[in-house]
Structure formats: C-alpha cells, structure tokens
Amino acid sequence: MENEQPLVFGGKLSIKDFEKYTLFHSRKLFIVMFVLVFLLVYVLSNGLVVESLSISTIIDITLAAVFGLVGVVVLYGRLYQIARKNYKSESLMKLFQTYTVDESRIIMETEQSKVTYHWSDVRSIHELNDMFLLYVAVRKAMVIPKKYFNNNEDMETFKLFLNKRTNYKP
User: Fold this and answer.
1) What is the rounded CA–CA span in Å between residue 58 and residue 66?
2) On the CB side of 134, how many CA atoms lie within 13 Å of its CA?
3) Which residues pair with 100 in a beta bridge?
C-alpha cells in the first residue's frame, strides 16, 4: 500500500445521514433514559419498599416500563429535532465534501474550507450499514456515507487504509 495514489471521494451530507449520526452518537442516552424513568416511577409508586411479587408490584413494574418507553420516545423525538436544527444552522455541512485519503492523513475539503486530519487524530471508527463514522474527538466525527464512494473497490481501499493506519478491524 506504500506510495499508492491518494483515494479521492465525496458527496453532500444529507439531513438523513446527519440524523442517523446524531442518533447513533446518542444511543447510550436511550438506555440511561429508560433506566432512570423506570426507577423514578417505580420508587414514586412503591417507595423503597421491596415487596414479594404481587399483582400491585407487577402493575407498578409495568407502569414504570411504560413510562420508561415513553421517555425514550420523547428523547428520540427531541434528538431528531436537535439534529435537524444543527444541520440547518451549519452551512458547511450542506456543501459538497471532497475527501482525499493517503498514507498519512485525511483531507476534507469544501468550497469554503479545508481540514486535515492525521491518522493519529482518529480516536475511534464505527462502520454502520450505510456510513463510516471516524471520531476525531469525543463529540465530533467525520460522517462518511458509503454513497460517497465511486464503487466498491474504492470503499475496500478506504477500509484497507483504516485497517493499516488505525486499530479498525472490519
């Protein structure tokens, strides 16, 4: 792979792609929300008293689970709104993005900006069904939809770069 030509690909990030990234990035919040609401509702309805399994306990657990699910649905809707708002307010996100990947770095260019990341800047990588997420900070990732690649060969070449330059294992 040494001295190979740089891999160039690109496209426009859609609002759907950004929503999917936001929901993936926040996935742990759904579990936390469910557990917190479940425990809160259960404790409020039952107190800290631990009873044997009875009809009222089953009803309390069911009620707590339903409220926990409602909390998750509300959180999902709110994150969806936040993703849309962030996408619409970030003008650079809507521009055509060109990525140039070589042995030492990843360059992301738009008509208004150019950002260079070295492979050592990539903290973690997640491959979803239709995109790659390359995290360069805890709350910041390069969102690279698979539709950006010209063909499967380019995507496989990108995976080889990831495998060779990071700890990514497909």
Assistant:
1) 12
2) 25
3) 8, 107
Q: For the chain, give the percent of residues with pLDDT over 90.
A: 62
- Supply the pTM of this predicted model: 0.80
Strand duo 96-101 + 7-12: pairing: antiparallel
**Do 26 and 138 contact (CB within 8 A), yes or no?**
no
8 Å CB contact between 142 and 97: no
Taking the CB of residue 108, how many other CB atoms lie within 10 A of it? 19
**In the structure encoding, which two tokens stand for residue 146, read together?**
């698979």
Rounded alpha-carbon distances, angstroms, from residue 105 to 8, 26, 99: 12, 27, 10
**pLDDT confidence bin for 1, thresholds 50/70/90:** very low
Rg (CA), the chain: 22
Residue 45 tokens, joined: 């309805």
